[in-house]
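pinned: reference chain
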Amino acid sequence: MSDTGTGTEAEALPREEAAAPLLPGPGQPPGSGPGATAAVGTPPEPAGSGEPPGLGSFLARAAAATAVLTVLGAVLGLVRDQAIARYFGASDASDAFLIAWTVPEMAATLLIEDGMALLLVPAFSLALTRRADAEAAKGAEAAGGPVPDPVRELVAATLPRLCVGLMAGAALLMAGAPWVVGVLAPGLADPALAVDCTRLTAVTVLTFGITGYFSAALRAHRSFLPPAGVYVAYNIGIIGMTLALHSVWGVRAAAAGVAVGSLLMILTQLPTFLRLLPLARPRFRRLGKRVPRTAPLLGVAVLAPVVLFVVSRQSQVLVERFLASTLPAGAISHLNYAQKVAQMPMVLSLMICTVTFPVVARAMADGNHVKARQRVERDLALAGMVVLLGTAVVLGYAPQIIEVLFQRGAFDTADTAATAQVMRVYAAGLLGHCLVGALSRPFFSSGRPTWFPAFAMGTGLLVTTGAGYALTYRFGVDGIATANAIGISTTALLLLMGLGTRVVPIRARAVAVSLGRLAGAALVAGAAGWAAAPLLPDAVLSLAAGCVLVPAAFFLTGLALRSPEVVSLLALIRRRFTDGR
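pinned: its structure tokens
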């Protein structure tokens, strides 16, 4: 199954295909088509306005492999959090580490997950398009001298300067760590410990930047496995250092693990990066029409809107921790554990958009807005279904999830109850977080300056800040989580309304109706889980039963509400089993 290139063909697509873009279509087995050997391979380049045969199944395999590594990284992240909770509980020490962890969290969002990808995936996609044009002309008669490879030109123009700038940023952060801690958490009981941890984690400004650069380049080349594995390496570094040195360095061992893990992230991608972008500089010959020498420059006009958007998005965490620092010790830790677990469904849902973002960027580079619209609408529907199913599980079984994952050592039943309550409140904003991540990518896919995402995110940040100040005094950490949900949902609504009129002409009303039906199914399934969870006193057994009950309730309610995504997915599953006979 592949996207089509004309409006007529788009309207003729079967509903099953429109709702499940990453699943192979009828008669297209999962292992068929070019690039079927591994998700790290590269399928053929598009010809004209269409897509290569087998691209749909390649994306399905890439998304599946990415999801597996993402789940593995998330599991190791839970092990990491369990180790920190076991040795340091929800205390002044864990709060100090989490304040220092704000630096790598901000750096990861800006340099790996969003900022670098939003800038470089479109740039590399355009460079690859120009390389393909030059390669197609290699066999013709030359009318001029050789010209450099556009991809190599892009790397040479951006990577050295990026490294110098990031090194300077890391050095400044180390020197200014006391000021940073004072701004982030003025009410912290032990600022000296937080300063030490911040200096240890400051190296991530450099290492995460290189990691993000490699990830964007590899994804543009449709190589997804190494970028998906970086958080596996990262968490292994943190866990290893924490277990080995916690008795000697205390919570500083975890901060040192952040630095070690960030170096492992680079090493995870370096071999593939060097293979796809070798040191040799291939050259193509000019024909009568000059081949552009470089990919678009990543100047201030393009860079500033992306940076402002990403910083505004991550600043929601800064607002939360600033407000929580005025509450009793452990409040920051409760927020952190709740947020990390609650956002797992959102992270998994965005793997779909991560894999398809290069496809959208390539379609925009080719001027094929119809194909871009089809891809975006399908991704929103599928990502919404994944995140809302996860939301239902969180709503129904938050206490059991926290008890199974964290209740041991210094993390007691009171911490479990407080964290579970916050996690349920966070769940109200999961769809908003998913939509912001999914909708922001098409805005930046054209490589042209656009300020609307920064405006939408800034508006949401103002809402979060205002609601946080209004609710924290009365409701404590629950008020902070509520403010987060309100602010991010505001941003998602603005992005949904603005995308269709500014970049990709999606049908915003149809998307909203579809997501509304899925949200109704999630509410019913979550309520069913909430009611059934206390019936089994053992947390493990209760959670295992919920993993069956909640999806069943979700899909049955989706059928009753006539959700196209649920109907299409179940029809596709039934067809697969029927064809298997």
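why pinned: The two ends are 22 Å apart (CA to CA). Strands lie at 146-148, 283-285.
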